[in-house]
């Protein structure tokens, strides 16, 4: 597939402008157009994870978001968007090993922050939040795929296999040409033959 039709959007802490809108506003702005593939690095699920673990909004707010997320995703699907959701699970021990590699390898220092260690203190709370998000927002139209990711080769293989199988089911066809191919072929051959003289 042509990489020009694919891009990645990373969702970080909401900006002041994003905070003036509902939590799905910034996500909806990044939804792919027809023919595009958009990879979300984090997403609207942060609004039932971080806000819950750190008690940033009341339970009445974040607990209603599961249904809003399901409605949002169903609307996207009904309008032709295909959704694949991957939860790349790594163990607590593997996370610590990766942190160690980042500390030891100067080329990976940019990947580590104090927040990484601080968030580890909330491991159990995050596990509960993830379990709820995965169980409440895994639908037949947009299921969650939980991918064991301690081994990167396995993670990559599993994700790739799911993407390929999904794309095959879509039975994507090349668009019909908008020009007469035989006319252009004749012109091409005529130009080639003229160049040989």
Structural class: mainly alpha
The sequence of SSEs as H and E is: EHHEHHHEHHHEHH
Oligomerization state: single chain
Q: CATH homologous superfamily, by name?
A: P-loop containing nucleotide triphosphate hydrolases
> What is the radius of gyration computed over CA atoms, rounded to a whole number of angstroms?
23 Å
Structure description:
The structure is a single chain. The chain is mainly alpha-helical and about 200 residues long. It has one domain: P-loop containing nucleotide triphosphate hydrolases (Rossmann fold, 3-Layer(aba) Sandwich). It is built from 10 helices and 4 strands; from the N terminus they run βααβαααβαααβαα. The strands form 2 sheets. The chain has a two-stranded parallel sheet with strand order 1-2. A two-stranded parallel ribbon has the order 3-4. The longest helix is centred in the last third of the chain and has 19 residues, at about 150-170. It is extended, with a radius of gyration of 23 Å. It starts with 5 loop residues before the first strand and ends with a helix. The mean pLDDT is about 95.
Keyword list:
4 strands, mainly alpha, extended, 197 residues, two-stranded parallel ribbon, Rossmann fold
Topology:
Blueprint: E1 6-10, H1 16-19, H2 25-28, E2 37-41, H3 50-53, H4 59-62, H5 65-78, E3 85-89, H6 92-104, H7 114-120, H8 123-136, E4 144-148, H9 152-170, H10 181-196
Parallel strand pairs: 1-2, 3-4
